[in-house]
Design brief:
single chain, Rossmann fold, 4-stranded parallel beta sheet
Length: about 350
Amino acid sequence: MEPNQKLKTGVLIVNLGTPESTGTGDVRRYLRQFLMDGRVIDIPPLPRWLLVNLIIAPFRAPKSAKTYSHIWMKEGSPLKVYGYSVEKKLQEALGEDYVVRLAMRYQTPSIENTLAEFEKAENIERLIVVPFFPQYASATTGSVHEEVMRVLRKWQIIPDLRFINSYYDHPGLIEGFALSAQKQLAETDYDHIVFSYHGLPERQLTKTYPGGHDCEKAGCVHGVNALNRFCYRAHCYATTAALVKRLGLDPAKTTTCFQSRLLKDPWLQPYTETVVKDLAARGVKKVLAFSPAFVADCIETIDEVGVEYRDMFLENGGEQWDMVLSLNDSQIWIDTLVDLVVNYKV
């Protein structure tokens, strides 16, 4: 580092990850790295290895590869395309006092390699880590934080470090999803609004707190309070409440639910697939679906919410199922990130 070189703040933005291509081999490699994370499948290492490598990855990879081929953009994976666009726009918005880099928790660009760029730069005096998960969960935000700390503990000089834990009701996040739904809500009189979040095993919420956690006693479905400030379920319901208020929706015509179950253990309920079928059985004809756990459209939003649940709804008697696009690389998402980087307070 030159004596007069200006010190800067590094900003590491991190999303979940994506296969390198739509090939079955690349998808299998991605699934193995993702699902071998002990925070994602939180069972002992040996049974996890057997489950992932002998059952899930071999059998799920071909089907997932086909799905990825349907959502792949001309420039590549949606998560990477939007991720690099956000990196560029956020760098421009923050200016020369910051260095912004994109990383993925799984596959490339890896957190380890991206952090190495900051280390080699030598003029990074502070590091801000922004996981792209609005609602805190050990399996997402917690995993990002753990990986960053694993890498940084090897550095001789560790910069001033700040983690963004959650922003489930940040005004910019809420406004971004509201604006994304604006045209659909103006054009269609929907019978019901579904807020579908990524699911988690119930046991992971219990493990969030050393003494255990009871969502019913903590009032998690009513939002965030002193007893549940790190509970994923509470964060999700708080996001829904903020969107319902912002959009002026009738709470009785909205449902918060959870998608993407894996294995047979109890996961957060109600399950989105159950809600979809129940709505159709009740005679609901027009539904608008939000996925506010995802700030960029991906396989879970484009295919699972946009295609699978739509087809399920129509097959069971529904008439119209629309999906709200995520924030992707919109200006309001960039503005929100700037605020998180510059003004965030725990």
